[in-house]
Amino acid sequence: MADETKAPAPPPSGEPKDSQGKPNPPSVEPVPAKKPGDPAAPANPGAPPGSPGKVAAPAHHEAAPAKPAGPAANPWNSEMISRLKMQYGSGIREASVYLSQSYMVLDSSLIPELLQVLRDQEQFDYCVDITALHYPEKEKPFEVIWILYSFARNERIRVKTEISDGQVLPSSFPIWPTANWLEREVYDMFGIRFDGHPDMKRILLPEDWKGHPLRKDYGIIQQDNEWVQINLGIESGQ
Amino acid sequence: MPETTKYLSHLELGEPDQTFLDSNELIINMGPQHPATHGVLRVILKLDGEKVLGTQCVIGYLHRGVEKIAEHRTYTMFNPYVDRMDYVAAVSNGLGYCETVEKLMNVEAPPRANYIRVILAELNRLASHMLWLGTHALDIGAITPLFYTFRDREEILKIFEKYCGARLTTHAFRIGGCQYETYDGFEQDVTKFLKFVAPKIDEYEELLTTNRIWVERTKKVGYISAEDCKALGVTGPVLRASGVKWDLRKAQPYAVYRDFDFDIPVGTHGDTYDRYLVRMQEMRQSLRILEQAVGKIPEGPIMAKVPKVIKPAVGEIYHSIEAPKGELGYFIVSDGSTQPYRVRVRPPSFVNLQALDQMVRGQLVADVIAVIGTLDIVLGEVDR
């Protein structure tokens, strides 16, 4: 089922990094959706503790093109996923388990609706975190990630969606009020706006600061020189 | 969603002179330089007489761009930076970071290292709670507990110093285990400390638990319900004091917490007094864990086999631990190079501070101080 949904999505717009440049290990058993953080469930159970470094070690000595081979993402099969897939079809682009942590990639049009379903029907009542990733070379450069937890099921999942620069996502503040500051931080750091947010402004940086520092094209020592000169009265903060 | 409209934190702040002259409403500014804000936190209070109509937090004064720095450092080089976020619980920060990278690399720290980690993390939880108790009591007006807790916290810091040379920003752990073997007499020192500190916790409780001033200042102050805690993402002792028996050490055990027998203290009322009781009980539970751990540190290596250059495979991971303040999570994305593509820190203080407005609305202005204290925030972690 996961293959069907994966196929229409070309690699660049699919799950960003997991599916690229990684040879599929021949014998990886499908890992059941286990609790993340379960130390008894490492992704390659045969290896004694301490030795899995071997997996990465050979690649380290090889030439540059071979990225270190890690465990592959497996399809995430659970009742919840089949239920959601029945309802939303290919809107759920991918549902996988990587390092015994489950995540799904959604079409951005499903965003407020499916999050609401996850909270109301699937008991994901605690939004742990909202964050984003920037891949400047991709067609849809931003990935927004919700990390959700269910107290009743003791289960943690990640929900991801890809958006283009300037695209506005609906706010999840009405679903989880904790999204208030978390979305403000995403806006502050990445410049992704959330529609329907009660107070969409910067949170950590000064309000009139220019630029969004966690974008990849923002340099590490770059700063808003104008702001520094006006507000701090010095030439440069460096 | 009508039920969530009460969480609105944005205030329609009018012009100051208008509010000053036209009504009884007063907008005052608390901080950023204020001794009771535990750092540089600015709270804009909207008051009607002594009653708080609403608050607005202004944060970011300590923003150092830790997440940006991470993208320009190797995994090993970033390790000391995490200590500077929650600087009163640096060990927990390091534990969370090292475990996350280990999970991403599919490495497991050897049992001996895990025992040392648990011992230091629990000592740090005690130190963090002691600092919280001293400053929280000081904010409310009791000066004595501050001296007591700082005196006893010193013993923990001495153990840290003997172990790794640093007292606060310990950088005690490495990716794959611990860098240092325990020093001669480490176990005796910890055992001695446990004997020393157990009666001290009784002493704090004697000073405060039935103290009438303390009870009056904390009972029914800063109430928050379990539902609101979950909706606002509040974790740690604040969540437990509202009656939710949830602790990541039990819910999703990491390190070797599975091996120890301990309870999760919970409160019933969700007020400042219950949060005080929960933290006091947590200190006793930490002592229980330490007693069990210190006697049976297994022999063996303290470092797993980790390549010299840490280069996790392409992928991403989220891992979180129960820090003294709540759920501390790291979300790390690797692009297969020696530097992380993205490190996101899920700070408990930042998320918990969001509940301040909910907790102080309708209360007295003096209670704002009590509530900031009871949330146990560290601004280094709020702003990162």
How does the SSE layout of this entry go?
The complex is a heterodimer of chains A (238) and B (384).
Chain A lengths: L1 H5 L46 H9 L12 E2 L3 H10 L3 E7 L2 E6 L4 H10 L5 E9 L7 E9 L4 E9 L5 E2 L8 H12 L3 E2 L29 H8 L6
Parallel strand pairs in A: 3-6, 7-8
Antiparallel strand pairs in A: 1-2, 2-3, 4-5, 5-6
Chain B lengths: L15 H7 L2 E6 L2 E2 L4 E2 L1 E7 L2 E8 L7 H6 L3 H8 L7 H16 L5 H30 L3 H21 L8 E2 L2 E2 L7 H23 L3 H7 L7 H6 L5 H5 L6 H4 L20 H24 L19 E9 L2 E9 L7 E5 L1 H6 L2 H5 L4 H11 L3 H5 L1
Antiparallel strand pairs in B: 1-4, 2-3, 4-5, 6-7, 8-9, 9-10
Helix pairs in contact in B: 3-4, 4-5, 5-6, 5-12, 5-15, 6-7, 7-12
Short recap of the structure:
The complex is a heterodimer of chains A (238) and B (384). With 238 residues, chain A is α/β, with parallel strands linked by helices.
Architecture overview:
The complex is a heterodimer of chains A (238) and B (384). Chain A has helices at 2-6, 53-61, 79-88, 111-120, 179-190, 225-232, and strands at residues 74-75, 92-98, 101-106, 126-134, 142-150, 155-163, 169-170, 194-195. Chain A has 238 residues and is an alpha/beta fold. Chain A has a six-stranded mixed sheet. Chain A has a two-stranded parallel sheet with strand order 7-8. Chain A is elongated, with a radius of gyration of 20 Å. Mean pLDDT of chain A is 73; it is low at 1-66. In chain B, the strands form four sheets. Chain B has a three-stranded antiparallel sheet. Residues 1-10 of chain B have low confidence and may be disordered. Helices cover 48% and strands 14% of the residues of chain B. In chain B, helix 7 (186-208) runs antiparallel to helix 12 (272-295). In chain B, strand 9 and strand 10 (342-346) form a beta hairpin.
